[in-house]
Design a protein that fits this description.
The protein is mainly α. The chain has one domain. It has 5 helices and 3 strands; from the N terminus they run H-E-E-E-H-H-H-H. The chain has a 3-stranded mixed β-sheet with strand order 1-3-2, with helices on one face. The longest helix is centred in the N-terminal third of the chain and has 21 residues. The chain is globular, with a radius of gyration of 16 Å. 22% of the residues are buried.
Amino acid sequence: MCRQDGREEAVEGTLEAARRQLTMLRDFVQKNNVASIPGDQQALVAEAPPYNRENAAFIQVPGPYETGVTATYNIAPPNPKWTKAEQAEYIPSEATLLFTSAHEVWPATSCSSCTRTPIQTSSRGSGWGTRSRRAGRTTQRR
């Protein structure tokens, strides 16, 4: 569903574009030592559920005591009640989607300890800056 040169694609187009971008961003983070990525951590890409579409895109990360749960990068489609013009305007360009993907997923979730440490659950909020500052801490409060 990404706009590219004024052409619209289906919802799956945006989700597929996001999947490609996440692979590219993960490779960039690893190759350039932006942050360490423990294991083979990957975020799933999914259409945002109807009850949670107030943001165009957002990441849901596992809580500090959840195990075996994968982070999910949710992307909301345009509201079907909008006019065709409003829906077309809502669809992100490749560049906008890349910016959003970098902000929400890589390098944002590359520090899994920041999203799993019980004392730091507030770091589950948006923004890699918060996570990277917390990632720099060498000690934790107990």
